[in-house]
Amino acid sequence: MANQSSAHPILCASFNQDNSCFAIGTKDGFKIFDCNTGRLLYERAIGAFIIVEMLYRTSLLAIVGAGEQPSLSPRRLCLFNTVNGTSLRELNFLTSILAVRVDRKRLIVLFKEQTYIYDVNSLEIKQIIDTVPNVQGLCAFSASMDNPYLALPASITKGSVLVYNVVDLQSHCEIDAHRSPLIAMAFSSNGTYIATASEHGTIIRVHLISDATKSYSFRRGTYSSTIFSLSFGPSADLPDILLATSSSGSVHIFSLGFDLNERSKKSSSLLGSIIPGSVSDALDPAHHLVFHHAFAAGVRSDAVVRKIEKASGTSMSEPVVLRATISMISFSGYFQEYSFRINHKNEATWTLEHEFNLLTAVAE
């Protein structure tokens, strides 16, 4: 997630593929942190960076400069080795790079009207996809070996999603997700679901990739708000929760799997017999929990669900409760980790486990 504005000290922030680490880019350089400990793992002060992407916990970084000096052109992608602090390979382009994604097989480079797919080992170009104008570099990438999908906007007038298989190098499906253009997308950890939000930011939708159908539809709010990030909880099947951060400064949690089988099937049995389940889900406010004032309003943010734990209640009659570890980055320069818990009454509690300033952190 890059931020071209100089209003905030952090220019970009991204979590790695398993959310064990994250990277930030600033006007001075870039830093790598461990999510579990908050420890600064690596830093390099060589100028401003607008893209810093990790490959799991390896020494390989994909970095793009902000263009404030000739050696850090936004048209140059550098594959950087953190072990010896040198460039492994540089790729130069005619236009500015808007986004980069990487996994163990593919390197994805996004431009305004094209997307390049490379073999990550040989750097051979495997495919060039012509796209609709994508000035924000919006995309979602699944690092799952079974579902290696790339999602791109398919329209500039409505919220259509092109889902492309980057290994087979062919289009998988197109999903008509929203009536207005897209602003945010994210795959589940296994690549079987995709969450989307439009520019209005009032409705969040979840789609099953295999048959391009809408599985859930949630109302975030009545008034428009920019969705900054979406993140599913880790799961081998249907994720338990979906997390969204917005320009209102709030964090929204939507429940998908953990309590729908109990409370919802009982409470909406009449509705379910008349209208589709996805519609009744949107009508049920119990599936939507809000953490207000998590960030300052208008400040860009990113958040991920790193861990999920289900546990039995204190009595045999109580349904399952859920605990989650949620990591948040504010582009104002702070990292926060919360413990989130939902009890059998659907009451949520947030506990701040630790917080630190990303700009002043120093290596131990």
Give an overview in words.
- The two termini are 27 Å apart.
- Mean pLDDT is 87; it is low at 259-286.
- The strands form seven sheets. This protein has a four-stranded antiparallel sheet, with no helix packed on it.
- The chain has three helices and 28 strands.
- The chain is mostly beta strands and 364 residues long.
What is this structure's SSE topology?
Layout: E1 10-15, E2 21-26, E3 30-34, E4 40-44, E5 49-54, E6 60-65, E7 76-81, E8 86-92, E9 99-102, E10 106-110, E11 114-119, E12 125-130, E13 140-141, E14 149-153, E15 159-165, E16 170-178, E17 182-187, E18 193-198, E19 203-208, E20 213-219, E21 227-232, E22 241-246, E23 251-255, H1 260-267, H2 269-272, H3 277-283, E24 288-291, E25 301-311, E26 321-330, E27 334-342, E28 348-357
Antiparallel strand pairs: 1-2, 2-3, 3-4, 5-6, 6-7, 7-8, 9-10, 10-11, 11-12, 13-14, 14-15, 15-16, 17-18, 18-19, 19-20, 21-22, 22-23, 23-24, 25-26, 26-27, 27-28
